[in-house]
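Retro notes (design track)

What went well: tokenization of the new backbones is finally stable.
What didn't: we kept losing track of which sequence belonged to which structure.
Fix going forward: every design gets posted as structure first, then sequence, in one message. First example under the new rule, 343 residues:
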């Protein structure tokens, strides 16, 4: 084959390669157009599904909205559209938590908590963000309910962590009312956790939390919540009363229950007032045992009698019987005390 023939062949090859390149470029353009078309169709389908799910959510048809939200999330990676992903997870959590009020409570609460956790993943952990704080507050409330229904050892610590995170947003200075509510729920979580594990440590944390509410729940501005906090502090101090410091803790509990009583108006809050008086009687009774003093047994009897006089007739019969039984035991103890003790 001569040189001219070789050159012709090379030119033909170059033309073929160029044509293939053009075809490849055209194919890429077509492919990209197809992908864009498919992506547009996918987004349109997601938008239509989201509108449908939102309508079901607004109508209270939560069990129908859930599978639609879940289907959307399957095709929506969290890093692709984090704001939309978080919003859908929040709505999914709402559906589960609403369902939890009527059926399969524990299972729906757990699913709701998982959705809230996923939604939190799309929110920057910014202490100045109200959205972040509300997510953590709601998550803490769900975990607190799960602790009652399922596993307190597992879920109360999760609730406490969430409440503490929320308090980074809702500070004493920035939002005192929300801060106090979060401290109160934290105190309740610690107190309940103390019933199943590490009693003294968790009771101490509970006491700190309830005491942290007092700059907000003052006797002047919010006497009822002031009384609730003081009543809880007194009960915790009774739980801590043991060993060499038993009498000290009990005397501190007396002060707390006396303070609680001042927060409850006998006519507006008769049950809470009676509860504080009953608790005060229990502390005085315990002090009479520790100190072997008739002075405290007399104060116990007086407190139980005031509780019986204060408690409304339509209140729990069980609670009424408890107070009367406490009074009977205190009267019996007074009769059994030796003359030396009665001095």
């Amino acid at each position: 084959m001569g040189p001219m023939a070789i050159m012709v062949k090379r030119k033909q090859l170059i033309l073929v390669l160029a044509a293939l390149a053009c075809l490849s470029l055209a194919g890429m353009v077509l492919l990209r157009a197809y992908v864009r078309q498919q992506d547009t169709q996918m987004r349109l389908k997601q938008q239509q599904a989201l509108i449908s799910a939102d309508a079901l959510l607004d109508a209270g048809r939560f069990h129908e909205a859930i599978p639609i939200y879940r289907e959307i999330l399957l095709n929506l990676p969290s890093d692709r559209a984090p704001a939309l992903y978080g919003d859908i997870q929040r709505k999914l959590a709402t559906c589960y938590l609403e369902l939890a009020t009527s059926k399969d409570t524990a299972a729906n609460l757990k699913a709701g908590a998982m959705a809230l956790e996923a939604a939190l993943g799309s929110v920057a952990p910014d202490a100045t963000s109200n959205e972040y704080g509300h997510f953590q507050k709601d998550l803490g409330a769900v975990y607190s309910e799960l602790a009652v229904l399922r596993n307190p050892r597992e879920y109360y610590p999760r609730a406490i962590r969430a409440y503490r995170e929320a308090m980074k947003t809702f500070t004493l200075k920035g939002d005192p009312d929300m801060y106090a509510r979060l401290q109160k729920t934290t105190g309740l979580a610690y107190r309940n956790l103390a019933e199943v594990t590490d009693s003294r440590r968790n009771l101490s944390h509970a006491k700190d939390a309830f005491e942290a509410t007092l700059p907000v729940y003052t006797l002047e501005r919010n006497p009822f919540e002031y009384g609730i906090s003081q009543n809880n502090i007194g009960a915790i101090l009774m739980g801590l009363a043991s060993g060499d410091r038993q009498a000290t803790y009990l005397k501190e509990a007396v002060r707390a229950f006396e303070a609680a009583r001042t927060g409850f108006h006998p006519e507006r809050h008769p049950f809470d007032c009676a509860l504080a008086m009953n608790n005060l009687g229990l502390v005085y009774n315990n002090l009479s045992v520790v100190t072997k003093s008739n002075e405290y047994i007399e104060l116990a009897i007086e407190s139980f009698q005031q509780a019986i006089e204060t408690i409304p007739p339509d209140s729990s019969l069980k609670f009424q019987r408890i107070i009367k039984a406490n009074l009977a035991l205190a009267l019996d103890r007074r009769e059994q005390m030796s003359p030396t003790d009665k001095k």
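Added context from the reviewer: Residues 117 and 139 are 8 Å apart (CA to CA).
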